[in-house]
Amino acid sequence: MPLDFTAIDFETANSSSASACSVGLVKVRGGKVVDRAYWLIRPPAGHDEFLEWNIRIHGIRAADVYGAATWAEQLPDLVAFADGDAFVAHNAGFDMGVIRGACTATGLEVPVADYVCSLQVARKTYHLDSYRLPSAAMAAGFEDFEHHNAAADAEACAAIMVHAARRHGVDDIIGLARACAIKVGKLGAVRAAA
Fold first, then answer.
1. Residue partners of 129: CB distance under 8 A and separation at least 6
2. Integer distance in angstroms from the first to the last C-alpha of the chain?
3. 10 - beta bridge partners?
4. Is pTM beyond 0.85 here?
5. What is the enclosing helix (H) or strand (E) of 88?
6. 141: how many CB neighbours lie within 10 A of its CB?
7. 8-state DSSP, 172
8. Which of 22, 148, 174, 189 is most exposed, with minimal Cβ within 10 Å?
9. What is the CA radius of gyration of the chain?
10. Domain residues of the chain, as ranges?
């Protein structure tokens, strides 16, 4: 099985997991980046206040997402881009929580997908003082990116996974999780075996 996955990163307007205001997606096929996507998201009502703290981190303001597609409008595009891939994210609990939170807030079914956390992979692959995304990406040879830009963060996450897979001598994402003795997470309803 080749090293295929979709790296994903969200930025949020506030502390609500439903407040996604941007997403970056990077598709990897055979260990190489083959496609990228980025778009702004208008958070759902009740989750759409932009806090100054978050704005300072990512620079996105309410005015920036005024004409953007809503979560409900863009979720099909996100799912189509991933096309059944396992998701990979740095601190995946946060990003998968955004998907769950935004779907719950908008009454949508959470898409079904496996996911692997590049933060956990980095902890089992590198010996670093910090495993924050910039440090782990630098260990993977991916430097000087615009941290907290969702597209750049997704690409950094992809670089970590590709580099770690090489270091562990594996050629698929599930094998990498096994080599690192970490759990493959499940997003959405778990499908019953046929």
1. 135
2. 22
3. 23
4. yes
5. strand 87-89
6. 10
7. S
8. 189
9. 16
10. 5-186
